[in-house]
């Protein structure tokens, strides 16, 4: 028996398609980015709060090589980009998922041209990549405080200590 492909897979967007796909999304558009290696409560709370700021949301994921360059450990990411993109796309609050191999998502931000740029509370607004550009075209930038003290690094530490 053959089963249909999950509809969420249509939300996964190669970087070279981002400009056109983002242009078709409802506005105001929210943009956020990160590794999202092992999705946890902190992630999904933050993503839902970010999405509530606009009418649609693009999430840009670090590629596996980009995650490694962040220095999170030799065994990171635990989940490869393909899997992280699928899990992210399955979330109702996410409208489009793309990725970036550079050290920052600036090129994806410029291609998507969001009205709202968001990062987690560990990022002061003045340090958020793309803040100057988004504010320059009239958009806003938000650093959403953490509601749940969770991190993938801490989660992996707990698992390894068992």
TrEMBL record:
> What reactions does this protein catalyze?
D-glycero-beta-D-manno-heptose 1-phosphate + ATP + H(+) = ADP-D-glycero-beta-D-manno-heptose + diphosphate
A GO molecular-function annotation: nucleotidyltransferase activity
Principal EC category = transferase
Tell me which domain of life the UniProt entry assigns to the organism this sequence originates from: Bacteria
Domain Cytidyltransferase-like: residue ranges: 31-124
The EC number on file is 2.7.7.70
Q: Which InterPro entries match?
A: Archaeal_FAD_synthase, Cyt_trans-like, RfaE_dom_II, Rossmann-like_a/b/a_fold
Pfam hit, one: CTP_transf_like
Which UniProt keywords are listed? ATP-binding, Carbohydrate metabolism, Nucleotide-binding, Nucleotidyltransferase, Transferase
* Family annotation (Gene3D superfamilies): HUPs
Coiled coil feature spans: none
Say if the entry is tagged with keyword Mitochondrion: no
Record's NCBIfam families? cyt_tran_rel, rfaE_dom_II
Can you name this protein? D-glycero-beta-D-manno-heptose 1-phosphate adenylyltransferase
């Amino acid at each position: 028996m053959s089963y249909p492909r999950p509809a969420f897979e249509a939300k996964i967007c190669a970087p070279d398609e981002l400009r056109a796909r983002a242009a078709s999304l409802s506005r105001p558009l929210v943009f956020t980015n990160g590794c999202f290696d092992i999705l946890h409560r902190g992630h999904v709370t933050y993503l839902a709060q970010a999405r509530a700021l606009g009418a649609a949301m693009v999430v840009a994921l670090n590629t596996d090589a980009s995650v490694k360059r962040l220095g999170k450990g030799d065994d990171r990411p635990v989940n490869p980009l393909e899997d992280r993109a699928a899990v992210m796309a399955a979330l109702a609050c996410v409208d489009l998922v793309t990725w970036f191999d550079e050290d920052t998502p600036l090129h994806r931000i410029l291609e998507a041209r969001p009205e709202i740029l968001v990062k987690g509370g560990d990022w002061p607004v003045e340090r958020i990549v793309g803040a100057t550009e988004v504010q320059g075209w009239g958009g806003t930038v938000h650093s959403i405080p953490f509601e749940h003290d969770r991190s993938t690094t801490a989660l992996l530490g707990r698992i390894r200590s068992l």
